[in-house]
Amino acid sequence: MKQHLDAVQSSFDPRAQAYLSSAVHAAGADLQAARELLAAPVQRIERALDLGCGAGHLAYVLAPQVGQVVAFDASPAMLDVVRDSAAQRGLGNLDCQVGDVHQLPFADSSFDLVATRYSAHHWRDLPRAMAEARRVLRSGGRLLFIDLEAPSDTLVDTHLQAMELLRDPSHVRNRSREEWLALLRAIGAQVEHEQRWPTRLQFDTWVQRMQTPEPMVRAIRLLQQGAPAEVSAGLAIEPDGSFTPSTVLWWARCAG
Ligand SMILES: C[S@@+](CC[C@H](N)C(=O)[O-])C[C@H]1O[C@@H](n2cnc3c(N)ncnc32)[C@H](O)[C@@H]1O
User: Fold this and answer.
1) Which of 96, 108, 168, 200 could form a disulfide with 79 if both were Cys (CB 3.0 to 4.6 A apart)?
2) Residue 15 has pLDDT above 90, yes or no
């Protein structure tokens, strides 16, 4: 039987190019906010780590503003795409490393910033991965976490998780605001900035990017069509299946 990390690699290895060109991933108000946070006068960030870098869109924002970025991912094919794209963009300070966020191959306190975007909902054991992020972060270092957020309404949340899992077997869970706050508190992170944006997922491109099998696409549509009004409203489900969850950004400092 396959382990969850095998499911992650099977989901992402064949789709690396699709993630490089994905509009949801390549652009977004969250990337602009990340740029602005990094430009604010915090202590200079020498070494940054992008966990679950995918096709590298957050790493490309970090690279011009820090000394060095390590783009880290479980998918070797994603990292091939990042290497090529970083070279085309003239980003000579971006290194790639393959591995699992639950066991980071880095020394304690070796980064000034640990970042991640649209990856944490795939992590099998988020508290453990966050403890690893904390371990490799120096005292006083910053965390930048960005992900789709689970609605705090349980019924709406259940429908979102079901749609995500039907689309992609490597999905684990989107977390709610309350869950994120508890996870950050558990590693001693002090939140300095929190922001969220509506993120519209156009249905056809959302399932095509992941090459979701047709029976699963039908199941998602049936689920949406049978959803109660509170769910349709909570996720802004449109007639063609497009819907709009929130993206949340956490910027936090870890002292001591
Ligand atoms: C949606 S993509 C990330 C998008 C990217 N960060 C961006 O800003 O465009 C999710 C990535 O997380 C990676 N990932 C998921 N679980 C992981 C794990 N346990 N360890 C390392 N990478 C993981 C996947 O391989 C995939 O490339």
Assistant:
1) 96
2) no
